[in-house]
RNA sequence: GCGGGGGUCGCCUAGCCUGGUAGGGCGUGGGAUUGCUAAUCCCAUGUCCGCAAGGACCCGUGGGUUCAAAUCCCACUCCCCGCGCCA
């Protein structure tokens, strides 16, 4: 949600944002409904004012045992009038709210303009891509040969894009989670394991409702949705609260499974465990003051980079273009890891500053003193590790001539072995 | 799942039976005063509309009754206690 005052005073800025994001939005209708809404508030407030005054008079008369019947009649008509007006106001307010919840976030000036991923900008590369003196395999063949994944039976039981992890890959999955958690704990992040299902209100706070269908699973017969990332559950945890300024920034290391429909991804990454409906993730989530949020954003990016460096996985950092970026984000970096089996860099982490967009939807504010006007804080989120994709990178980049995989030094102690 | 008790403006609490402008304490900030510390007193401290003056809203949520609802009625929700079930 954006600041209504900004939209009112600066509609051209919003129009430009919509153009850059390549999004259809009835901005003029929205501005009109905001105006209507405010006019109605003034009208109903005035009527309520007279109603309150008369109510006091009735109370006075009753107290002194005077006859109040004529004045009560007056109240009756006012009450009826007010009821009608309130109905109209509710409708306008509803319309306004619905639209305001679908309006995407502002775009930071450093974001390259462009309609899709072809406009993304490479910021830097790190690490040398590995060279091999033998014919390499992709992660699908590797996991098959080593008995690490069973896709056929998963398809039988759950459908496409599900998997059974087996043997050492189960341990690798756990090792990455444990390593990631240790890594962030050392940086003073608070570990947090969230609910895996949250209600609609909470979900709407974190993402835009229209995106539900493509991304989020709904639990039948309940007001519950499976989280697509712990970000959804962490963002909403402080809903409707005022946080003490001195406790900011709040840095969380969220641990959770992630559930995603991956609708509309037909044909892409059909095989293997690269694009799946379910995986585990350690997520960085930060509640920050507006002044510090851009610094925090860079820090989070630095953390993911350091993590991948420790694993020894080559990567490049991409700054997403206006058209490729998610709607709640004002600026997003992707970390793309080198995947030898595919001979390309592939997205494994995403680092976003949402400014006050989520905070407004969730009414999360902060203030330094209690006599101070509370203001919306900023929220940021970044993957630290999403296990399945990182495992793909490890499998493909660290494969050996004998068909096995060596395990990065940093996580050997969690697995208790140096090869798979 | 059943029975009982509860949810009040940051925190604690009064008001609910008997409907008529939501009161007090704590905390926090500002000010006054006292030679310092302490104490005391005053003001501020939820949301929305408004340039402002001012006004409206706010008692878990949503309905209902009524001229009028924190208060009465109904439904839902969350918390606490007991029972049941259970990894």
Q: What global shape is seen? A: elongated
Question: What share of residues is helical?
Answer: 40-55%
Annotated CATH architecture of the largest domain: 2-Layer Sandwich
For the residues shown, what is the average pLDDT?
89
**CATH topology of the largest domain, which one?**
BirA Bifunctional Protein, domain 2
CATH class bucket of the largest domain: Alpha Beta
CATH homologous superfamily title of the largest domain: Bira Bifunctional Protein, Domain 2
User: Spatial order of the strands in the main sheet?
Assistant: 1-11-12-13-16-10-9-4
Rg, alpha carbons: 27 Å
Please, how many helices?
14
- Distance from N terminus to C terminus (CA atoms, Å) equals 48 Å
Helix-strand category = alpha+beta
Unreliable runs, pLDDT <50, ≥5 residues?
none
Largest sheet descriptor: 8 strands, mixed
The proportion of strand residues reads: 15-25%
Count of strand segments: 16
Order of helices and strands: HHHHEHEHEHEEHHEEHEEEHEEEHEEEHH
Number of domains: 2
What is the topology?
Blueprint: H1 4-9, H2 11-21, H3 27-63, H4 69-102, E1 121-126, H5 139-145, E2 149-150, H6 151-157, E3 164-165, H7 168-186, E4 190-193, E5 197-198, H8 200-206, H9 212-215, E6 218-219, E7 224-226, H10 230-235, E8 242-244, E9 250-259, E10 278-288, H11 293-311, E11 315-319, E12 331-339, E13 344-353, H12 357-362, E14 365-367, E15 375-376, E16 378-386, H13 387-397, H14 409-415
Parallel strand pairs: 4-9, 8-14
Antiparallel strand pairs: 1-11, 2-3, 5-7, 6-7, 9-10, 10-16, 11-12, 12-13, 13-16, 14-15
This protein binds one RNA strand of 87 nucleotides through helix 3 and helix 4.
